[in-house]
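WARN no homologs supplied; continuing
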Amino acid sequence: MEIEEIGGVKVERIGAHSHIKGLGLDERGKAKFAADGLVGQLRAREAAGLVVKMAKEGRLSGKAVLLAGPPGTGKTAIAVAIARELGEGVPFIQLSGSEIYSAERKKTEVLMEAMRKAIGVKVREMRKVYEGEVTEIDIKTGSSPYNPFVKVPQEAVITLKTTSEEKKLRVGPNVARQLVEFGISEGDVIMIDAESGRVSKIGRTQESYTYDLEAEQIVPRPDGTVLKEKEFVYVMTLDDLDNMYARRRGGFFSLLFGVGEREIDPEVRAAVDQQVKEWVEAGRAEIIPGVMFIDDAHMMDIEALSFISRAMESELVPIIILATNRGITRIRGTEIEAPFGMPLDLLDRLVIIVTDKYNGDEIEHILRIRAKEEGIEVSEDALKSLRKLGEERSLRYAVQILGIAGVKARSEGKKAIGIEDVEEVSLRFSDVKEAVDHLRKYEEELLK
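OK structure emitted
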């Protein structure tokens, strides 16, 4: 990883949940209507707040959380908010229940890897770092080598400023990817390891703290030079350490070409656990249990669900959050029907939080937040039209139309989305119900 100082354009970052900073609760644990990037779902957010307190007090052992509700009701957003509430640097791993099926690896191995990715090890070490307030950031994207239709970060140019100096840096794809993942923007105070390129977000300066839905730590602009030697605190996961140890064990060719085996040997994981234990006892590290979020949990079969149930009893386990939008359905791998497609003995050990459909006011507020997050100006008439689409069709459909209408308006040189943009785009793009009706119309002519 190379970082080059150079002798300078903003980046637009659009993530589905990049605006979420927490659960938006007051000091008594009561949910505000709109705060920390979340809107509505007051009962679910207050329940999630109690889950966070249980986790911090170590009282979530042997339990997991189930988020249940219709599609598009904020289940993923609440899971992200729980991770944010647990603190800065807490690992958050998200996967779908269908991702565990592979012809090359066992289901339990995929789940074990995800669990170890969700357990962080905070290490303290003296390192050379670039530290400062981000005053300019420009991330250049290009086509992914695996999918030409997907844009991925290629490099970035950032300007870091301290009380003493200002430097402009050009960084490679590894650092650029982390800048996007952490949602780094102007006004953030960050550290970049000069050797490894690991990025740490420290907080935000007071001068740049203007977004009323933010809940980030306010920090002063760093002193001294941009490049300095200081105690560098960063988080690795147990999975990172597993792969490092596996490469060492594989010898010279593994160092060059990778681990060489698709599954990590249990002996390697045992050695990693022992090393981490020694670091903790020596005061060099601390373990940070993160969040493993499994969406569409009903897609997992009885074997995978049994593994989750056993894993909940382990000493070294992340906070497990499952989500589903199913009612009474068949447990995959059996002929048994059960609530949420899960065995009753597992359901008895889950803390269940339900989510409700959003009302019109909540939909409108969410659309305002998304428009601000994506840098889109929307006229009041257009916003009312989008609200109506969210009420009659779905919130997700309305958000998609918002983004597409923004592209259309910009391409035509408009400063804001008008109602005509929303109506035209909604006529060209169908929601699920309209698409299904269209398929039924031509059912006899379609291939089966």
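The longest helix spans residues 266-282.
OK
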